[in-house]
Design a protein that fits this description.
Number of helices: 11
Structural class: mainly alpha
CATH topology of the largest domain: MetI-like fold
Mean pLDDT: 82
Radius of gyration: 25 Å
Largest sheet: none
CATH architecture of the largest domain: Orthogonal Bundle
Length: about 300
């Protein structure tokens, strides 16, 4: 009798938990649909307004006081150059820091303080990084209001995101992989480079994607260090015709980026400038999606290599 009653109570408890699971699933799907449809509506509005403006002249023309002649040449070139500096600075430093803190750093009070600060820095407003970059890179180090200063400022902005994502991805690797590598006589570095990093590459790439996607749309740090709102020239080309065929003069050149160009156009009262801003926003979204697609492609090939 008592056994039957106990089984009934267990069945009722399981049924009650299943109802909560279904309720949570419905709420989750509703929240997802709200976000998805909101994005689709905004993107469709931007697509309808900006698509007719996406012509070859729009990409190859400099900004102008006349909306029909204005383009985004200096803005998209500046964005690409700034993101190159950001990626080549933040990604290796962030991944290296994450690996060191997770696998090599001793567990003491200093390491704990560093970990807490890194986690807190991920939530610091972007304007703070702009002020830090203004004082450090522009004035103290003398980089000036240049592509290099902007790229380093955005690298500081996304560095905590990359570090935290790297550590979490390494933690997700099963302990058996580490133990198996050590049992076969692998050193610490061989275990990290041949096992932990390849298996955690997907999670690390996700963190890099999130960081770069945040950086490409940031405006506050760029404005703080002195990005130009109207620029009718391009930085020097990174590739030259003579030896050594690579130039770094572009690092010290003035610049502008897509978010600032969009802000400049949105602040204008003419409706034609609003259309230009919608077209520039569409290009920025496409650039972000392209970065994501490239990262997914790299992640897929890393996973494929692991399987073989």
């Amino acid at each position: 009798m008592h056994k039957t009653k106990g089984l009934q109570e267990i069945r009722l408890m399981i049924a009650r938990h299943k109802r909560f699971d279904k309720l949570f699933m419905v709420v989750g799907i509703f929240a997802l649909m709200v976000a998805v449809f909101t994005f689709i509506a905004l993107f469709a509005h931007m697509l309808i307004d900006g698509m007719p403006r996406l012509t070859l002249e729009f990409f190859t023309s400099f900004p102008s006081r006349h909306p029909e002649a204005a383009g985004i040449l200096s803005a998209w070139v500046g964005t690409i150059l700034v993101m190159l500096v950001t990626a080549f600075t933040a990604v290796p430093i962030g991944i290296g820091t994450g690996v060191y803190l997770e696998e090599y750093a001793p567990r003491n009070i200093i390491t704990e303080i560093i970990e807490i600060n890194i986690t807190n820095l991920a939530g610091v407003p972007s304007i703070v990084y702009g002020l830090l970059a203004l004082g450090l890179f522009v004035y103290q180090l003398g980089f000036g209001q240049s592509v290099l200063s902007a790229g380093l400022a955005l690298a500081l902005l996304i560095l905590p995101v990359v570090i935290v994502a790297t550590r979490e991805a390494i933690r997700a690797v099963p302990v058996g992989i580490r133990e198996g590598a050590y049992a076969l006589g692998a050193s610490k570095w061989q275990t990290v480079s041949d096992h932990l990093l390849p298996y955690s590459a997907a999670g690390i790439m996700t963190g890099v994607i999130i960081g770069l996607a945040r950086a490409i749309g940031e405006t506050a740090p760029i404005i703080t260090i002195g990005a130009l709102t109207f620029i009718a020239f391009l930085p020097p080309s990174p590739i030259t015709g003579g030896f050594p065929f690579i130039s770094f003069e572009w690092l010290t050149a003035p610049f502008t980026v897509m978010p600032i160009q969009m802000f400049n156009w949105v602040s204008r009262p003419q409706e034609e400038f609003q259309v230009n801003a919608a077209a520039a926003g569409l290009v920025l979204v496409i650039m972000t999606l392209t970065m994501n697609a490239l990262a997914i492609y790299i992640r897929y090939h890393m996973r494929k290599k692991i399987k073989w």
